Amino acid sequence: MSDNDVKQDVKQTVIGAIKAIRNGPRAMRLYLEICAKCGTCATACPVYYGRAERRYNPAERTDIIRRLYRRYCTLSGRLFGPLADAKDLDPAELEEWRKIFYECTGCRRCALFCPFGIDHSVITRKGRAILDKLGLTPETMKKVVDISLRTGNTDGAGEAAFRAAIEFLEEEMEEEHGVPIKIPIDRVGAEYFYVPPSGDMLVNPEATMGIAKVFHVLGMADHWTMSSKFFDGANYGLFTGNDEHMKTDNRAYVEETKRRKARVMLMGECGHAHRIMKMMMEKSRWWGDLPFEITNCMQWTAEHIQAGRLELDKSKNPQPVTYHDPCNFGRSCGITEEPRIILQASCADFREMYPNRAENWCCGGGGLSAMDDIHQFRMEISGRKKLEQILATGATNVATACSNCKHQLTQLMEYHQQQIEVGGVHDMLSRAILVGGKAAERKEYT
Amino acid sequence: MSGTVGGAAGVIILASAVLLGVRRLMVPRAREITGPADYLILLLIAAIIITGNIMRFGPEHFDLALTRAYFGTLAIFGNPLDAPALENRVFLVHMGLALVLILCLPFSKLLHFGGILFTHQLIRRQ
Amino acid sequence: MSESRARQVDLQLDGDGFLKTMSSWTRSMAVEVAERNGIGPLTDDHWKVIAFVRSSYQTYRTGPPVVKIARHTGLSAAQICRLFPCGVVKGAYRLAGLPRPAGCA
Fold first, then answer.
1. Which domain holds residue A332?
2. In this complex, is the C-beta atom of A55 within 8 Å of any C-beta atom belonging to chain B?
3. Are residues A117 and A189 in the same domain?
4. Does the pLDDT of residue A148 top 50, yes or no?
5. For residue A120, is it within any domain?
6. Structure letter (DSSP) for residue A312
7. Number of domains present in the structure of chain A
8. How far apart are CA A218 and CA A253, in angstroms?
9. Which of A77-91, A306-320, C61-75 is predicted with the least confidence, judged by mean pLDDT?
10. Same domain, yes or no, for A85 and A212?
11. Which member of A117, A347, B4, B110 lies 3.0 to 4.6 Å from A317 by CB, making a disulfide possible if both were Cys?
12. Residue A443 domain-assigned?
């Protein structure tokens, strides 16, 4: 094939995908038809806040798709071309697409403030899906998806590593409390199947200790299990726009829950994993009726705290702590009060950052924190608002419930040389919970 | 009464259109995403408003009752060609542009004026 | 100075500054990577961490969490963070020649 043929081929693929929008969800078509270009989204966007440039304007980014949609799917675009803001594709632009569609964190804050509720993240994802079809997904993202589909977790860790991590956590907990606290693995018939993000197993394992302690205190140590093969809810198919990858990755976890004969799939502190399970897979019935329900571990723990079944010693966390609402929990899943219940019960000085809950600003890493090639962009542009927000609280500890946010925030604090610790919600609980009337005796971690 | 209210509305809507235009030109986050179609639509609306105001406030006063007769003829499928309203050139332009605007509705971003009523409903369902 | 050293030590790095092949790791490479990342001069504590990270990786094919490093080296997590200012993953793993971890972690 000549160079020209390849270009034509690429163009046909893109245009085919654009034309397919007509048969897709109506909300998507509406997003493309009715944007009034008022610029409100730009005021809500963390990236645009970080740097007010045209390329970072959400409406401009989505206009890349919109211009093509008008050119190929609307009468006015076909007849009047540029006068109707329609434009044909120049395959040379695709190189720019690779950057620009990965400069949106998909946080959906724009959708909250747009007068029409236009969700730019959906259009961004469409752009990424087209890139993926062409094999143009950035290498780092491609690598994570490959590893995840091959090994079942995004870190590519094997069973030995997982078992070693669990063993280590059990030793840690025994040392902290003087009693053995178990983390059951691969049990069949346990009531709860716990699915954390792999980052919570391998890098920030304290949250998992928190969960194990809650089960222990409730006398339910035999009622839950983890899986030695499926211990990572992270699903990068959401980020690359590839539905097939997303569903393949997801199915493995649904099947594993069935194999474990669990009654409840207990999702860990991972925003997008919970959202895919609860809001997409369950709601759209990807795999039909499920023999189990899906709950988040924060909802579960908060319920037990409110029922007075857990005792916590707040004085173990005397430092000022604030909570960063991960976009997927706060905006997309409505889980905002549960983490606060846990933190208020575990910390002596809990502080809100403003705005919060559904209106919270994105950490600036949304789905992109694995991409070190855009490290500077994440530190200086997309993360700027978050840094200001955190500093304004005066907190020395940021708790959040998303592996992605944790990674981004940790890097953000290091980059800007702030002595602020970043951790999970159950991390704080793990340090304060009373096991047999006694809180953890622990070395200083921070 | 209707004259006063209509006149006030004409002024207010003109001011609104001008403000929208000024905003689009002055606010960078809006200007940088504005394309020809956005300006054209705004110009079209401004032209309709201005011709309307000319009819009302211009030297050659236009009697509203004439439009009533004109639309009355249209409603009963009569012959509108000899309606006295059509002798006024400003009215012809005003009416013509308004028809263009209505034609544009389903094909342009103006759809948002209807779409706003159900986007939220639609999004919540999907 | 650092340029001349770069020529002495031939570093095969990926786009994120991680060694491409772990088996080619040498102590002088770690010194060179540290210098490029503004870490160091490397002390005994640095080497303790690097040695533990490497042995842990060789056993489990994944880098150890910071709490685990803290436990095995007797350093506190805060000390480790001071030793490797750009984070355990980017600092210690990089110096130890581990491949870049993939996911959100």
1. 310-432
2. no
3. no
4. yes
5. yes
6. B
7. 3
8. 26
9. C61-75
10. no
11. A347
12. no
User: Cα(A281)–Cα(A233) distance, rounded to whole angstroms?
Assistant: 13
User: Does residue A35 sit in the same domain as residue A176?
Assistant: no
Domain end, chosen from A282, A305, A328, is at A305
C67 vs A208, residue with greater confidence: A208
Domain for residue A160, yes or no?
yes
Chunked mean pLDDT (size 10), chain B, 126 residues: 82 95 95 93 95 88 85 89 86 94 86 74 60
Tell me which chain A residues have a C-beta less than 8 angstroms from the C-beta of B34. Answer: 37
Residues ≥6 apart with Cβ < 8 Å to C36: C2, C17
Same-domain pairing of A227 and A352 = no
Statement: residue A89 has pLDDT above 80: yes
CB contact under 8 A, C65 and A165: yes
Q: CB of A197 within 8 A of CB of A235?
A: no
Closest by Cβ to B123, choosing from A27, A36, A52: A27
pLDDT in tens, A285-331: 999 999 999 999 999 999 999 999 999 999 999 999 999 999 999 99
Active site residue C104: yes
Tokens at residue C60, please? Answer: 């489990």
Chain C residues with a Cβ under 8 Å from any Cβ in chain A: 15-16, 59-63, 65-68, 70-71, 76-78, 85-90, 100-105
Block residue for tokens 């956590």: A169
Q: Average pLDDT of C41-70?
A: 86
For residue B88, the Cα-to-chain-centroid distance in whole angstroms is 18
Judge: A161–C60 Cβ closer than 8 Å, yes or no.
yes
CATH 3.60.110.10 fits B2-125, yes or no: no
A410·C87 Cβ contact <8 A: yes
Chains C and B touch (3+ CB pairs under 8 A): no
Based on the domain organization, do A231 and A350 belong to the same domain? no
Q: Which of A108, A136, A164 marks a domain boundary? A: A136
Of C60, C65, C103, the CB nearest to A370: C103
> Which residue matches tokens 């960063």?
A324
CATH classification at residue A400: 3.40.50
Q: How far is C71 from chain A (nearest CA, A)?
A: 9
Report CA A40 to chain centroid distance, whole Å: 24
Closest CA in chain C for residue A418: C85
**At A265, which CATH number?**
3.40.470
Q: Are B35 and A66 in contact (CB under 8 A)?
A: no
| Nearest-angstrom CA–CA distance, C4 and C35 | 13
* A444 is a domain residue: no
Contact A441, A176 (CB under 8 A): yes
The span from the CA of A292 to the CA of A289, in Å, is 9
My answer on whether A160 and A128 are in the same domain is no
Q: Structure tokens of A298? A: 């924060």
- Distance between A47 CA and the closest CA of chain B, angstroms: 13
Q: Does A235 touch chain C (CB under 8 A)?
A: no
Strand, helix or coil for residue A162: helix
Domain match, A163 and A299 both = yes
Over residues A350-361, the pLDDT tens digits come to 999 999 999 999
Q: What is the largest CA-CA distance in chain B?
A: 55
Of A203, A236, A406, nearest to C65 by CB-CB distance is: A203
- pLDDT, mean of residues A215-230: 95
pLDDT at residue C19 in the model:
77
pLDDT of residue C4: 42
- Are the C-beta atoms of A212 and A182 separated by less than 8 Å? yes
Q: How far is CA A194 from each of CA A117, A197, B63, B70, rounded to the nearest angstrom?
A: 34, 10, 77, 74
